[in-house]
Every structure is written in structure tokens, then in C-alpha cells.
Write a structure and sequence with these properties.
Elements lengths: L1 E9 L2 E10 L6 E4 L6 E6 L4 H10 L1 H11 L10 E4 L2 E8 L6 E4 L2 E5 L5 H27 L6 E5 L6 E3 L4 E5 L7 H13 L8 H10 L3 H15 L4
Parallel strand pairs: 2-4, 6-8, 9-11
Antiparallel strand pairs: 1-2, 3-4, 5-6, 7-8, 10-11
Bound molecules: zinc ion (ZN).
The site of zinc ion (ZN) has 4 residues, from loops.
């Protein structure tokens, strides 16, 4: 039995992948790596490891969702710590306030019924994400002579951002919890796709032109990204 270590990259998020050759395996099997991080793909004795990688790429949505489900979740409720723009805040529930959500020092207050706290706070985070991301994406795109056709903020599970063939950019609102330079990298990454619909060296050159430290952004997301998906 031999193992090769790879990783699959889905827009800013890197998932470690072990390709394991097994003499008795009859077909390619993909599973979560319960002993470590990421996933394991088992391939039959004479199979091409590239087929294992290909299978993992095809199943990347499933893979990302399973990995997200594994860790403990931090719910949005009174007293918990929640990151916002890379800083930790304590959540405070204030049912009587007229709010709906505001920051005071290192606390984020959420008004109204406790049952609606999650929705209120994620709606607020989404709004903050749009306020950060939209001007940044327009400015970076203008920098390379492009303009996004639209900008969408959503709760994507496997991707931090994406760029459609029509020039529409979409981003995860969860980026607003990450440090600003990480959000900046993801915006630069998707904007660079307006110029290059691939991850060629020319693409990465454009990314480097649009953000200060792409490598740091990628590393940060691969270390901390899945934790952001377990909040709220
Ligand atoms: Zn990309």
C-alpha cells in the first residue's frame, strides 16, 4: 500500500488529499480522512492516481460539506466569541434594544427575540460583507480594465468566491469574519478571473498585482477557513 500526498484547490480553499493505492481495492473510493485532515482516495492496484484526483475534484462539493459538518459549531448566542474582520468580539443579546445589530467596544449587540439572533446576525454580516467587498471588487477590476457584471454575496460552502463566464462575481459573506487582507486576497483572486478563466502563471501574476500577499491569504484560508464555516 503506498500513499501520495496531494491537495485539491477550490478557489482559495485547500483540502489535503491522500491518494492511497490498495491491492484489493476494486474501484476508486473517496472518504473523509477521520485520522487526519482532508480526505483519502483509495485506488485499485493498477489504476492511474490521476483518476483518483479527478474523482475527488468531481466530488468537491460533497467533500467540502462533509468536512464542514465534522467540526463543532459555534452558534450565534449570548456570550460566545465571534470573529469580525479578523478581531474577536463577544456576542451580546439585548432583547429590549431597538437595534437591530451594533458594535460597542469589543462586543457585538443583537436586539430582538433570541430565536432570531442567528438570522439577524448573519443578515448583518452579509450586509457588512457587501459593503466591504463590492467597492473593493469594482476598484480592483477597474485597475485591470474590467468591470464585474454583478456582485453576489451568499453562504457558499465550498468556495470563498467564484467568477462566472459572464463576469458575475460571487462571494461568501463569511469572508467578513476573516482578517481584511484575507478578504482582499479572495476579491483579487476572483477579479483576476475576469482576465484569466484559469489558474495559469499569468493568472497568479494578475492576482499579485491586485493584492499585497496572495500566499498569506491562501495559507490563512487553508488553516482557518473551515472554522469560519462552523460559526453561526
Ligand atoms: Zn480561482
Amino acid at each position: 500500500m503506498r500513499e501520495d500526498h496531494h491537495s485539491i484547490h477550490i478557489d482559495g480553499r485547500e483540502i489535503p488529499l491522500i491518494v492511497r493505492r490498495h491491492p484489493r481495492a476494486r474501484r476508486i473510493i473517496l472518504r473523509i480522512n477521520t485520522a487526519g485532515e482532508g480526505a483519502v482516495v483509495t485506488i485499485p492496484a493498477h489504476a492511474d492516481p490521476a483518476d483518483g484526483l479527478e474523482m475527488a475534484r468531481r466530488q468537491s462539493t460533497w467533500l467540502g460539506e462533509r468536512l464542514d459538518d465534522m467540526g463543532a459549531r459555534t452558534e450565534f448566542r449570548d456570550g460566545v466569541q465571534v470573529p469580525f474582520q479578523g478581531q474577536d468580539y463577544t456576542l451580546r443579546h439585548d432583547p429590549a434594544a431597538r437595534g437591530p445589530v451594533w458594535i460597542e467596544g469589543d462586543e457585538i449587540y443583537v436586539a430582538g427575540d433570541a430565536r432570531h439572533m442567528t438570522r439577524r446576525l448573519s443578515d448583518w454580516m452579509k450586509k457588512q460583507a457587501r459593503a466591504e467587498i463590492a467597492p473593493l471588487a469594482h476598484a480592483k477590476a477597474a485597475n485591470i480594465g474590467h468591470a464585474p457584471s454583478r456582485i453576489t454575496i451568499r453562504d457558499t460552502r465550498t468556495r470563498w468566491g467564484s467568477c462566472s463566464s459572464k463576469g458575475g462575481l460571487s462571494f461568501s459573506w463569511r469572508l467578513v469574519m476573516a482578517p481584511n487582507e484575507v478578504l482582499d486576497y479572495v476579491v483579487a483572486h476572483e477579479v483576476a478571473h475576469l482576465e484569466h478563466m484559469n489558474h495559469s502563471p499569468a493568472f497568479w501574476q494578475t492576482v499579485d498585482k491586485l493584492t499585497a500577499d496572495a500566499r498569506h491569504g491562501r495559507d490563512w484560508l487553508s488553516d482557518n477557513g473551515s472554522a469560519l464555516h462552523r460559526i453561526g
